Amino acid sequence: MDTPLSTIAVVGLGTMGTGIAEVLARSGREVIGIDTDEAAARRAVASLAASTARAVERGRITEEERRDALSRFRTFSDLQAAADAELVIEVVPESYEIKQQVFRELDAIVSPATILATGTNALSVTRLAAESQRPERVLGLHFFNPAPAMKLVEVVSSVLTAPPAVQAVTELARLLGKEPVAIGDRPGFVADGLLFGYLNQAAAMYEANYATREDIDAAMKLGCGLPMGPLALLDLIGIDTARTVLEAMYSSSHDRLHAPAPILGQLASAGLTGRKAGRGFYTYAEPGSQSVVPDALTPAPRGAEAAGRPVRSVGVAGSGTMASGIAEVFAKAGYDVVLAARGQEKADLAKARIAKSLDRSVAKGRLSERARDEALGRIAAAASLDAFAEVDLAVEAVAEDLVVKQELFATLDKVCRPGAVLATTTSSLPVVAIARATGRPEDVVGMHFFNPAPAMKLVEVVRTVLTADDVRATVHEVCHAVRKHPVDCGDRAGFIVNALLFPYLNNAIKMVEEHYASLDDIDAAMKLGGGYPMGPFELLDVVGLDVSLAIEKVLHNEFRDPGLAPAPLLEHLVAAGCLGRKTGRGFREYARR
Q1: Confidence at residue 303, expressed as pLDDT on a 0 to 100 scale
Q2: Higher model confidence: residue 461 or residue 244?
Q3: Which residues are in the 3-hydroxyacyl-CoA dehydrogenase NAD binding domain (predicted)?
Q4: Residues 338, 383: Cα–Cα separation, whole Å
Q5: Which of 208, 256, 469, 507 registers the highest number of CB atoms within 10 A of its CB?
């Protein structure tokens, strides 16, 4: 069937429906907007007028194009207005009863050739199609908010959907300038199926008082490059909406990771549904506002906490990329640095790596030659940890092996002066087990930098049950001095970032195992629909599949949740030596250098 789809009805003129209507009208389609609430229809017209006016001001469209778009958008309060539509897109509330009623009424109104699309992201397209008199013409057409800006459109087929209908709406999506991804019917589809599990875990992490809302959000923005933190995003989406999506996902998957965190139900029941209510995880200036205002949970201003210990010199143990990066960070911030490795040759090579990094910064205009020379002059390369005798802060960045780290900390305990702070950069091991290798566990703290350390702003500050208050304060002061953003968290597997990131990556692998979607479609969905800088499979290949598997195993062992068990496909690839970019093959193949 070659349907031009030139006349399209949009049923439901809330935020999403209005956005879809705008996209369609600006593309030259005749748009019939339908909402039983006449106030909603008026708001939709006003919204389109305002957004197109802004587009004219920014030079994106002409005034004539604006007038044409506005003339193509007409609003009605009765579904009968959809009689001549070739495609109807419903975006009414996420309720089977409401949506099925809309489809039943449309069956009696529209032409037999009309395609009926649901904008649901939580309900079964198959179940909605089965209630229609024309199930072969029913499919899912899931835009992302804000529809005019977001490129992704998920085209969802049920087992009843006719291929020509899918082809017609897929071609329409391309003509609208969108990136259509064809997928099957399951709650959440690809993007929301991965996104909402991650959001749910973040809510549960906050509910457990593991970290503050501000630290959870900052960790995911700075550690993963996401445009919004998960709790702020839940407020934007609507906590009631998120809970509805998760309920639908859990009813299908029975995965405990999809069981809505109790706090979501509590907030929704209290009417604290996020931005639209003026309060959710955060408090806003007014309902609908994006301006966060202080409330009883807002952290005290910096400086109101205990003072830390003075730090003038820093020891960095290790000779790899992370150790070199951390030493560079401290040296550029004006600290005297002792870089110790197992042997002088390794220490000298690590310092040479830092020199090359500083040279690149000079070449890019980020650093002056004088600043480079001064930073390099502050670094002393040493052949053993004995050189740490007078440092105020010792940071280890050696192999991620508990025995290796414990032996190193036992040595630091003997070498470092009393009162020196001892920090581990572990990303997956229990900090307290490392601290107990010393006779001063109160001086030991986790200081988890992210790679590459000179570029990444985040440091997870991991406090054990034995860490002294002034040790935590010291690390915070040092982080601010080197222009890093510290976030506090307790001593448990994955801390904040890895505990939220790797289950999401694992679930993406499971989607491929189940043949639900391809690597390319999943990566595209998360970049275009979720704002992720990299798709999950791109990221897995960069991190290394062996590293990813090790972290997944640590998380599963700590929390014992079946949903955290590493995906078999990941284990098989690691067993085959396909570890990602570093071996030339992981989930994808790479050209050998």
Answers
A1: 64
A2: 461
A3: 7-185, 314-491
A4: 10
A5: 507
Q: What's the 3-state SS for 406-467? A: HHHHHHHHHHCCCCCEEEECCCCCCHHHHHCCCCCHHHEEEEEECCCCCCCCEEEEEECCCC
Is beta strand 421-424 parallel, antiparallel or unpaired with respect to 393-396? parallel
Contact status, residue 172 vs residue 86, Cβ threshold 8 Å: no
273's tokens: 């549904």
Of residues 90, 154, 460, 477, which has the active-site annotation? Answer: 460
pLDDT in the model for residue 3 = 47
Is 548 among the catalytic positions?
A: no
Crossing angle between the packed helical segments 239-253 and 230-237, to the nearest 10 degrees: 100
- Per the prediction, the chain carries an average pLDDT of 95
Average of pLDDT values for 556-572? 95
To the query of whether residue 179 is one of the catalytic residues in this protein, the response is: no
pLDDT mean over 245-271:
94
Instruction: Note if 515 is an active site residue.
Output: no
Are 393 and 478 in contact by the 8 Å Cβ rule? The answer is yes
Band the pLDDT of 187: cuts 50, 70, 90: confident
197, 230 in Cβ contact below 8 A?
A: no
CA distance 256 to 245: 14
Catalytic residue among 319, 427, 428, 507: 427
Please give the Cα distance from 455 to 329 (Å, whole number). Answer: 9
Contacts of 430 (CB under 8 A, 6+ apart): 402, 491, 492, 493
CA distance 530 to 145: 10
Distance CA 190, CA 521 (A): 8
What is the CA 165 to chain-centroid distance, rounded? 33
What's the confidence (pLDDT) of residue 165? 96
Distance in angstroms (rounded) separating the CA atoms of residues 391 and 339: 11
Helical axes 239-253 vs 191-207, angle rounded to 10°: 110
> For residue 593, what pLDDT is reported?
59
Smallest CA-to-CA distance from 308 within 467, 496, 489, 439 is with 467
Amino acid at site 31: V
Catalytic residue among 142, 448, 476, 556: 448
CA distances from 446 to 18, 105, 390, 436 (A): 48, 61, 21, 13
> CA 274 to CA 290: how far, in whole Å?
10
Question: What does the block give as tokens for 95?
Answer: 């309720």
Q: What is the pLDDT of residues 129-169, one digit of tens each?
A: 998 999 999 999 999 988 999 999 999 999 999 999 999 99
- Strand extents, DSSP E, 196-334: 283-284, 292-293, 313-317
**With 80 as the cut, is the pLDDT of residue 574 above it?**
yes
Which DSSP symbol is given to 279? Answer: B
From first CA to last CA, the distance across the chain in angstroms is: 48
Distance, in Å, from the CA atom of 539 to the CA atom of 542, rounded to the nearest integer, reads 5
pLDDT (0 to 100) of residue 264: 98
Count of positions (residues) in the chain: 593
The pTM of this model reads 0.92
Distance, in Å, from the CA atom of 60 to the CA atom of 58, rounded to the nearest integer, reads: 6
Report yes or no: 150 and 162 within 8 Å, Cβ to Cβ. Answer: no
CA distance 478 to 307: 12
Q: Please name the helix (run of DSSP H) or strand (run of DSSP E) that holds residue 88, with its range, or none.
A: strand 87-90
